[in-house]
Design brief:
Length: 277
């Protein structure tokens, strides 16, 4: 039974998925299984993965599913996994060779911590980017810091299986910001430790990124925050969720009005009215 299960969701990434797979197989820590979930690719993704399946058949499992979205692919991988620790790697990102070794060592030395994540390097169209201040990382009770935007990269986390048993999986109804939703739900119940080492590489700028598919990503964050308000949210945290909801609804309402989409703007104006009651 492997200690760590690594899950790579992918969709039509024939041009890059093999690089992500290599970065996992090159890890210094070796007690892991790799599960690649192909979310219905129609290009040559499978042919790029097949050489790894043949060479690492005892370590790599390939799953093909009908196109259902990244949350479904990650959840499928979790259900098929056997490790007590679970990691994810987006198929356009890369891992440093020490990534698993550093996180496993930390978890073993701090058994009370069930979730940790690492720092990251950002590249856009091949050029290095410096992270802005609002992407600053935090450790411990980080719920409030997770409200404005997603500060945790899915490619950077290591999560104990018991966390998913208690919190649930990625919300498959959210087309994007599904990670924002999950980290908030986890941060409500668990301390999350930040490892201050750049152990992943995030690569952006390509046309098939989900973040480029939608205008107004805060629409999906508003959905996640409304879910929290309708859950058993501690009173001392509810005010922070409401405060963030108001900020996002104001921005979205103004943005939709600017684009002449009055009915969409009214959705967020109605939410604001309800929050102010």
């Amino acid at each position: 039974m492997p200690l760590v299960s690594v899950i790579i969701p992918t969709f039509n990434r024939e041009w890059i998925v093999s690089e992500a797979i290599r970065s996992v197989l090159a890890q210094k820590f070796n007690d892991f299984e790799l599960i690649v979930v192909d979310d219905g690719s129609t290009d040559n993704t499978r042919s790029k993965i097949e050489p790894f399946i043949e060479s690492f058949k005892d370590k790599l499992k390939y799953i093909y599913q009908k196109n259902s979205g990244v949350s479904s692919a990650r959840n499928h991988g979790i259900r098929e996994s056997r490790g007590s620790l679970i990691c994810f790697l987006d198929s356009d990102d890369l891992w440093h060779r020490d990534k698993l070794k550093e996180q496993v060592s930390f978890i073993e030395e701090n058994p009370d911590i069930k979730v940790c994540y690492t720092d990251e390097k950002w590249f856009k169209n091949g050029e290095h980017l410096n992270q802005s201040k609002h992407h600053k990382k935090h450790s411990g009770d980080i719920f409030r810091y997770c409200l404005p935007l997603c500060i945790i990269s899915a490619s950077s986390v290591m999560v104990a299986r018991e966390v998913f048993d208690n919190i649930g999986f990625f919300d498959e109804h959210l087309e994007v910001c599904e990670d924002y939703d999950l980290w908030l739900r986890i941060a409500l119940k668990y301390k999350i430790h930040f490892i201050e080492k750049k152990l992943i590489v995030k690569r952006g700028g390509h046309s098939d990124q989900l973040s480029k598919k939608y205008w107004g990503m805060d629409r999906f964050r508003v959905e996640a925050l409304l879910k929290l308000l309708n859950s058993e949210l501690p009173e001392e945290l509810k005010k922070y969720v409401i405060e963030e909801l108001k900020k996002k609804c104001v921005i979205l309402s103004k943005g939709f009005k600017k684009r002449g989409k009055i009915s969409e703007a009214q959705i967020y104006e109605k939410i604001l009215c309800n929050l102010n009651l």
